[in-house]
Every structure is written in C-alpha cells, then in structure tokens.
Design goal:
alpha+beta; Ubiquitin-like (UB roll); 5 helices; about 15% strand; globular
C-alpha cells in the first residue's frame, strides 16, 4: 500500500540510485521517461516501448525490470537502480568482463544487457549457458554480440568466485 506521503496529486517520491527524487509526471508515466526527461539519467535507453527489447532495463528492488512499461505510480516504497547507479563487486566484475571480451559494438543495448547480467550474477554464482540464455532472453542486440555476452558473463562469474575464494561451480 502506498502512503499519501509518497504519492501526492502533483507527483511521487521514489528512491533512484540511492537518492530520493520527487517526480512531477502523471502517475501513468513510464519510469523510462521520468528517468530520461525529468532526472536526466539517459543511460537507460528507449528501444521498443513494449518491454520486448531490454534496452530500458533497470533494477527495481534489485530485480531487472523494463522501465518502458513500469508506471511511476507503481514505484512508491521501491528502490530503482539505473546503469548510472550500479556499483559493487558484481557490477565491477561485469564491467571488467564486458571490456575484456569487447562485447559492445554499437552499444545501444548494452546498458540493458549489463543490468540483466548483473541481476543474474547477483542470484547465481556459476550460471549455465541455459541460465544465461534465460536471464538474457528479451534483451535484443542488433549487432549480434550474444556469444560475447555469454562469454563475458561466464568470465565475470569466474572472477567473482575467485575473489570470494570459492572455486565451487555450484
């Protein structure tokens, strides 16, 4: 249940990248547009507007979520993390692997791809190819870098296991 304090007739207060932000957009405004137009966080991309391509992926309470179909009225009391706000060991490992494997070509889809990969590696320390495919399903890359994305995710997982001192694959 959303409190009156969090949703006012003239806007809503939500937590984005650890900061409380007051959004003055209409309640049915997709989070994507509030992020890009009102707050100026443009790392989250518009792709299809129908939650089919993954370019707009953010984390909502830690879970990958399509921001193009998530109305701001559904966000009271939740934490939103964008590509600009990800940090920590998992994000660092994913970023390093993305660079090492040279994943990006045009780069348009990459913020969504990275957000989905971080979501997967937050819950699975040694994902299989099938788990990676399932987690990344719906993230479209026009350049076709899917094999490099999978390789980078495996590399990031291995780096995280090495850093934690665990060689246990499962």
């Amino acid at each position: 249940m959303q409190s009156r304090k969090e949703i006012a007739a003239d806007g809503i207060t939500i937590e984005i990248n650890g900061r409380r932000e007051f959004l003055t957009a209409a309640p049915d405004t997709p989070l994507l547009w509030a992020l890009r137009q009102q707050i100026g966080l443009t790392g989250t991309k518009f792709g299809c507007g129908m939650a089919l391509c993954g370019a707009c992926t953010v984390h909502l309470d830690g879970a990958p979520t399509r921001s193009c179909v998530t109305p701001i009225s559904a966000l009271a009391g939740k934490r939103v993390t964008t590509i600009e706000g990800v940090s920590g060991p998992v994000a660092d490992a994913v970023h390093a692997a993305w660079v090492a494997v040279d994943v990006a070509q045009c780069g348009y889809c990459q913020s969504g791809q990275v957000m989905a990969a971080i979501g997967l590696l937050t819950t699975s320390s040694a994902p299989t190819d099938e788990e990676i495919d399932r987690a990344m399903d719906g993230n479209v890359c026009r350049c076709g870098t899917y094999p490099r994305i999978r390789t980078a995710i495996h590399q990031a997982a291995a780096a995280l296991r090495a850093a934690s001192g665990s060689s246990n694959a499962r």
